UniProtKB/TrEMBL annotation:
The active site is at 124 (proton acceptor), 193 (proton donor). It comes from Methanococcoides cohabitans. SUPFAM superfamilies: NagB/RpiA/CoA transferase-like (SSF100950). This is Ribose 1,5-bisphosphate isomerase. HAMAP family: R15P_isomerase (MF_02230). It catalyses: alpha-D-ribose 1,5-bisphosphate = D-ribulose 1,5-bisphosphate. Reaction proceeds via a cis-phosphoenolate intermediate. InterPro entries: IF-2B-related, IF_2B-like_C, Initiation_fac_2B_a/b/d, M1Pi_N, NagB/RpiA_transferase-like, R15Pi. The keyword DNA-binding does not apply. It is an enzyme of class 5 (isomerase). One of its GO terms (molecular function) is ribose 1,5-bisphosphate isomerase activity. Belongs to the eIF-2B alpha/beta/delta subunits family. R15P isomerase subfamily. Signal peptide: none annotated. Keywords: Carbohydrate metabolism, Isomerase.
Length: 308
């Protein structure tokens, strides 16, 4: 259990971050937990697995990849502990393999939408978006990237390091320079923490400003999202919970203490409506956001939302 608690803490404190990485870490943590779980009764086994699953799911509320990965990993039909353990280990193995393959496939599919000479703007740090950008670059396309800083946690600094390592010409901008710089941009490429049934994109706060500015300037907006980032629960009317993080991330606590009339609001994500998104690149193809329902139904199975 200690190992699973450590992973949960790393997700909560964002040592492990990004919707894809969170999902993979949670699936692996659950796999390792059942491997060591010493119970003989299936009821006790299921109870313990549910408890462990809930600990993982409660670490961060917005990335739908997290509950989806946990549900996909823990579902089993066995009536005995050995069989259930076997199924869960198999589920984790398949999920982790498919997640790796998805990243590669999305890179190949998305790269077709990037052309020689393109300037790409990206936000935060998305491995899915970077897979598309790096694949296009490796194909020999002459591209450059404008990367936002992504306050308050500055995930843009991770992005510019990765882009630098690929050798991709990169410009770092502050978030408030997005609209000013949009005239130079051909395509905006971002990741996703969740896609809702109506095709709305939930991603790092500021994404909707990028998409809005791109829409105004008639530039393309692509979101790159594995099918496990689509939200089955939104079919049942649920809303995506937008994580509010601590004020400390935005302002020094000592400064804030001197300002009794000031409070801080720090939403970690925002919502971009479907009409600002041209395409969602998944591992099973590039779709208009309006097809989110079909993707959930055919590739994810919205029975996920009825489970545990
Ligand atoms: C990360 C973020 C990323 C998505 C997709 O937010 O918003 O764009 O999670 O990432 P945080 P990936 O840093 O708060 O986790 O494509 O790597 O799954």
């Amino acid at each position: 259990m200690q190992q699973l608690l450590d992973t949960a803490e790393k997700i909560r404190t964002m040592e492990i971050r990004g919707a894809g990485r969170i999902a993979e870490a949670a699936s692996a943590a659950l796999r390792d937990y059942v491997l060591d779980l010493k119970v003989t009764n299936i009821k006790d086994f299921n109870k313990k697995v549910d408890e462990a699953a809930n600990i993982l799911i409660q670490t961060r509320p917005t990335a739908v990849s997290l509950p989806n990965a946990v549900q996909i990993t823990k579902r089993h039909t066995s009536e005995d502990v050995a069989g259930a353990r076997e199924e869960i280990l198999h589920n984790a193995e398949v999920f982790l393999k498919q997640a790796g393959e998805a990243l590669e496939r999305m890179g190949k599919i998305g790269a077709k939408r990037i052309h020689d000479g393109d300037v790409i703007m990206t936000h935060c740090n998305s491995h899915a978006a970077l897979s598309v950008i790096s694949t296009a670059f490796k194909q020999g396309k002459d591209i450059s990237v404008i990367a936002t800083e992504s306050r308050p946690r500055r995930q843009g600094f991770i992005t510019i390091r990765e882009l630098n390592d690929y050798g991709i010409p990169t410009t770092l901008i502050v978030d408030s320079a997005v609209r000013y710089c949009m005239k130079e941009v051909d395509t905006v490429i971002v990741g996703a923490d969740a896609i809702t049934v109506n095709g709305a994109l939930v991603n790092k706060v500021g994404t909707s400003q990028l998409a809005h500015a791109a829409h105004e300037a008639r530039k393309n907006v692509l979101s790159v999202a594995e099918t496990f980032k689509f939200s089955p629960n939104t079919i049942l009317g649920d809303m995506i919970d937008i994580e509010e993080r601590s004020a400390d991330e935005v302002i020094d606590q000592e400064i804030l203490a001197e300002l009794p009339n000031v409070k801080v609001k720090n939403p970690a994500f925002d919502i971009t409506p479907a009409e600002y998104i041209d395409m969602i690149i998944t591992e099973v193809g590039a779709f208009p956001p309006q097809m989110a329902y079909t993707i959930i139904k055919e590739h994810l199975g919205w029975e996920l939302s009825h489970m545990g």
